[in-house]
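hey so i finally got around to running the thing on that chain from the lab meeting. sorry it took forever, my laptop kept dying and i had to restart like 3 times. anyway pasting the input first so we r on the same page abt which one it is
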Amino acid sequence: MTLGKPRVNRLFGQFGCALTIDVEEWYHTCLVPDYVDPEQRPALRDELDRLLPELLDTLAEAGRSATFFVLGEVAERLPRRVREIADAGHEVGSHGYLHFRACDRSPEAFRSDLERSKKLLEDVTGTRVLGFRAPEWSLRSLASPCLPLVAEAGFLYDSSLAPYPLSGTTTNPRLASRLTWDRPGRARELLEIPPLTFGPYLRIPTGSWPGRLVRPSWVADAAEEHLEEGGLPVVVIHPWEVSGRPTPGRLKGFAWFCHETGRLGFQARFQELLHALPWSSIRDAMDLGQSGRKLARSRGAMTSTGATAARLVG
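ok and heres what got predicted. didnt touch it at all, straight out
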């Protein structure tokens, strides 16, 4: 049954600043379909087995935590690294099992991928997976037939709807919101935690190549303005962005542009950004608790999430 667009109600609360990391290899780019499909992928060098411990050390030295949206095929290959992420106090979320665009898949295929990744990550970490982020922001809009499936799969929140053109749309929520689909007998709900942007009108993403090109102070200022507005700023990076090493394989055209633009010197800029604000996971920025039980108990009325006091407008 197609549920259509959900009702959108903004969340209000005392939020923190969230750092999120999409755990995928350098070659997991939807702009090169043969690279993301394991059945067609040529022999390519993997880097995450080395990059993840380095990134965990960097975060530990800065005293920061993050949400790691882990790709299922990565977790299957590197379960020990995923457990190390969880054991270090970070949140593990799902990035799907394969890095295919959700908007290019049938709802049935998307549901299967979603459930497979969630079960795998929960088996690996031994903890409930609360959040999901679609590869390449590919839920695209509130009208996506795949969006309510995220709630149906048991996720508490989604962080896939980019509030800017191309990757998403300006009609997507810019601030943390509750999505509600009415259906006979009961409502279906999902929290939407969108990525941070620059400017109220231009909505330039603070992640990917635009975020790599600007001064860290600009991203920090945008996050502070978002907090003052009552929002939950979410910054996005990938392990390969902060590796400080050349890409170990060849990309061409727009895939090369998106991957390489702004990478020179970004490792140092990321260090500066880490120390600019007290970044934490989405789970901790919303005070969801280790298992999300606080919010799960109040999802009907949404009266409180610990210190967050997530009141709704409308």
